[in-house]
Amino acid sequence: MINAIVLIQADNGRIPETAQALADTDGVAEVYSCAGDVDLIAVVRVRDFERIAEVVTGRIDKTPGVLRTVTHIAFKSYSSAEVEAGFSLGE
Predict the structure, then answer these.
(1) pLDDT tens digits, 32-74
(2) Residues in domain Transcription regulator AsnC/Lrp ligand binding (predicted)?
(3) Which of 19, 30, 33, 69 could link 43 by a cystine bridge, Cβ 3.0 to 4.6 Å?
C-alpha cells in the first residue's frame, strides 16, 4: 500500500463542503481540517503510484474549493511503539 499526504489550500468559505467531498473520494482514507499553513490534509492510500496521480491530479485538484495542493509520498510508516523503541536504544 502506498500512502501520500496531501496538503491542501482551500477556499475559506467552502472548507466543510470541500473536506466532505474529499473524504468521499475513492482512494482518500482520511481528511483533516487544521490550523496553520494549510486548510486541509488528506491521507491517500492506494496500491500503486499511477493511482496516486489519478487520485491527486484527477480528483483532489478538481474538487470544488481546492485552490492548491502539495503532495508528499510516504516511504515508511512508524507506529508509536517503533518510535518509542528507537528513542530508548542504549538505555
Answers:
(1) 999 999 999 999 999 999 999 999 999 999 999 999 999 999 9
(2) 6-76
(3) 30
Q: How far is CA 50 from the centre of its chain?
A: 16
Residue 62: which domain range?
2-87
Under 8 Å between Cβ of 56 and 44:
yes
Looking up residue 30, the CATH number of its domain turns out to be: 3.30.70.920
Residue recorded with cell 473524504: 23
Closest CA to 4 of 35, 34, 37, 42: 42
The alpha carbon of 78 is separated from its chain's Cα centroid by a whole number of angstroms, namely 16
What is the number of domains present in the chain? Answer: 1
CA 82 to chain centre: 22
Helix (H) / strand (E) element for 10: namely strand 2-10
